[in-house]
Amino acid sequence: MTRTVHCQLMDKEGAGLTFQPYPGELGKRIYESICAEGWQRWLAHQTMLINENRLSPINPEHRKFLEGEMEKFFFGEGSAAPEGYVPPEPDAD
Q1: Torsion region of 24: left, alpha or beta (phi above 0 gives left; psi -120 to 50 gives alpha)
Q2: Cβ–Cβ under 8 Å, residues 51 and 40
Q3: 4-75: CATH superfamily
Q4: 65 Cβ partners below 8 Å, 6+ apart?
Q5: What local confidence, expressed as pLDDT, does residue 1 receive?
């Protein structure tokens, strides 16, 4: 049976994550109050942040920045796109 949570990010009931996706207290909060769809939204946002800011996940300063953005994305005022970021145009079929 799928675990459900009231997703704090999306303000709706959704399928919960199957494991704690990040270590520590932040990971525990995410596991307890963010749905799988909300987590996928973060992964897409994080990828954009890494690419646009040319971050390296092995750099401790970059990881600290990403953790701060994750906290804001889920539980704060939200994580903004880098200045000047223009989202890609959707493919026209």
Answers
A1: left
A2: no
A3: Fe(II) trafficking protein YggX (1.10.3880.10)
A4: 53, 55
A5: 65
Residue 79 token pair: 């994580």
Whole-structure pTM value: 0.85
As a dihedral over the C-alpha atoms of residue 40, residue 33, residue 5, residue 3, rounded to 10 degrees, the angle is 80
Q: Which residue has the higher pLDDT, 84 or 23?
A: 23
Tokens read off for 51:
């690419």
Domain boundaries in the chain?
Answer: 4-75
Distance CA 49, CA 40 (A): 14
Q: Residue 36's pLDDT band (boundaries 50, 70, 90)? A: very high
- The answer to whether 27 and 71 are in contact (CB under 8 A) is no
In this prediction, residue 6 has a pLDDT band, given cuts at 50, 70 and 90, of: very high
